[in-house]
Design brief:
This is DUF1462 family protein. By secondary structure, this protein is an alpha+beta fold. It contains three helices and four strands; from the N terminus they run βαβαββα. It has a four-stranded mixed beta sheet with strand order 2-1-3-4. The chain is globular.
């Protein structure tokens, strides 16, 4: 079974640019339910990183994404899969499934 590491970077406060979008935590929970149903043959491992609270024991890779969010280069919630950027801001299903289909399913 293929394993995919899913990381959602977010914060308690909804991103100012993402008015009416779900919270980072809601996005994290939504991904867990939707991806398990849509891709039953993939084992997803989920991690939520609060960009304001989780500041210790982060990899350089995680720190890079957090810095880009803090410098307004990217928005939160930000989703990565296997350490690759997938989408940020108002997270929708289409870019996520496109990434999985192109980078994970087709690489089997």
């Amino acid at each position: 079974m293929t394993k995919v590491s899913v990381v959602v970077y977010g914060a308690d406060v909804i991103c100012a640019s993402c008015v009416n979008a779900p919270s980072s935590q809601n996005t994290y929970e939504w991904l867990q339910s939707i991806l398990a149903r849509k891709y039953p043959n993939i084992q997803f491992e989920y991690t939520y990183i609060d960009i304001e609270k989780d500041t210790e024991n982060l990899s350089d890779h995680d720190q890079q994404f957090i810095e880009q969010i803090q410098e307004d280069e990217l928005f939160y919630p930000l989703v990565t899969m296997n350490d690759e950027y997938v989408t940020d801001g108002y997270v929708q299903l289409k870019p996520i499934t496109r990434f999985i289909d192109e980078h994970i399913v087709n690489e089997k």
